[in-house]
Structure prediction request, 508 residues.
Amino acid sequence: MAGNTSTPGSTVLSRGLALLFAFDDTHRRLTLSELARRAGLPLPTAHRLVGELVAGGALVRRPGGQYVIARRLWQVGLLAPAETGLRELAAPFMNDLHAATRATVHLAVREQSHVLYLERLSGRASVPVASAVGARLPLHATGVGKVLLAHAPDDVVTDTLGRLSRATAHTVTQPARIREQLERVRRDGYATTVEEMTLGACSVAVPITTGGRVVAALGMVVPSLERDRTRLVVALQVAAQGVRRSLDGLGPGP
Amino acid sequence: MAGNTSTPGSTVLSRGLALLFAFDDTHRRLTLSELARRAGLPLPTAHRLVGELVAGGALVRRPGGQYVIARRLWQVGLLAPAETGLRELAAPFMNDLHAATRATVHLAVREQSHVLYLERLSGRASVPVASAVGARLPLHATGVGKVLLAHAPDDVVTDTLGRLSRATAHTVTQPARIREQLERVRRDGYATTVEEMTLGACSVAVPITTGGRVVAALGMVVPSLERDRTRLVVALQVAAQGVRRSLDGLGPGP
DNA sequence: GGTGACCCTTTCACTGAGCGGAAGCAGCCT
DNA sequence: AGGCTGCTTCCGCTCAGTGAAAGGGTCACC
Prediction:
């Protein structure tokens, strides 16, 4: 910036991005002062920059004075490539799974030490689900997370096992037990959770592979695993095979 | 900005946004010079700003030297509110439609004089479809577009009728005929197209209303309307009613 | 109706961040 | 070798950007 800045070296653009990235899953609407606080900017500076972001169509100001991400940013965001290909290929298979079981169906990839949810089909049933598309959750407490962790590089595994957060009373937080479970995931080809992320929700998940690498995971959330664990695993594996075939058909993805 | 700019009055942030918005449906990957050209910036300036956008996690540089929207921007884009509520409410009904018919199902709103596609479930059948989520198409050549146009303010209608672009040999480009069709849409409660946007694709669409206003449109794309037009219209209307009920249940939307 | 807490908005003098022409570099044609 | 296109770096000029300070508006609670 110019003149008497308190943090020389930082640029206008980086501050603008800090304002945009101040929004997250649990902060979809922010007031000016919240924005300034979260982006680490003085209030008048935030005021001016936010004004420009609104003028430029990146943010919208609600009547109440709260700011939200604008539709136009949603549109450009959808142009992000990596996920798009995988999501479009997986969509029909996810639809089949959803139609057959009426459960919540998830497509996720690993982003560092977190699961990133790429797609979700919500079940009609009243199973509580923590994930939302674009949201990140810990690897060790979700079905898709365990699948991805089981096939992650060693440094990610040790990093994750180093800080196992607790979400419910059933969350597994002993590294040794997780290692044991990961071994079983690799052997059996699927992972399960029982109320480890959300009470009242269990999950099953399988890997999606291409070229010998695990690139994503496909999972489902159900109220209980007692009855039809096998049926769900088979359905997931068939769907995952279908996605793999589509992926391989198109050559190495973007 | 500072110093000897060629366009005084424009700000760094607005230039940064111009770079982001240089991406669109048909330009998902851009080289530095394309970005500079599309954003209207001198090349060295674009070079510097794009570098900052990459450092800030808004863009990613591919090995080939092409830039694409980064995953992080996809994530914040998903936080845009207006659409999210409607999409989530409509999703289960769209799934039902899709399961029952196996056709492509669309959810769209009007954005100025264009249809903006909020959601799409792709049919397995090989019907060519032009729309993608986040994409904009003309109002007069699509089923959902005609529905939205039929319930749009007068100025939008006259504006749209003033420049009726042609997409295929079947596109209706005479204002009088479109007016006639819009009248019929309002009377019958549904709109149709026959290969007007894409050859080999027909469509049916119905409005989604809340509080007496048409806020969106629900549509389907099929190879032909001959056989089961009535069946499709009924299915769509049932689904649209369901969405309306959900909308009304939650009070005035976000 | 006073007081305090919270927002948001505007002002303004100082200055270094931003600018972009020019030049250099690398690849790829003919 | 010469021309073309596209990327990167340099560097001196200068105005866009900065943020403390002050102003205004709206609640709620005493």
